[in-house]
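Quick one:
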Amino acid sequence: MGNQISFSNLGNECVHKFRDKINNAENIVDLRNYFAFTVIDFLNQIFEESQLDIDADDIKFNPDTKELYILSDRLTNDLEFKKIWDISDLKNVIYKFADSANHRYIHINKHNEKTNKKIRN
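Output:
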């Protein structure tokens, strides 16, 4: 078994800011955007010296999947990304972001009538 690369420390630094953002999300669209942009920023820090260009179409929050997020085929088929993905805890760190987003998603859905009332006023 080879050495595993850990991005947990970097993820922990980012997750605190992310939780602040999602706590202010008033709807699912905000939540999805905060998730995508936070994970993109996180991945760009990891791949800052590469040619890998990560955008909002490459990662999406999806509470209907086991992982709670979906990566694009373009990203998962990129050799550099795949190499890091396979030898690191990257999937676990991104799951941590998705799990936080999922908790907020559940909260927003439970309190949807309050959000709709704010929008109408």
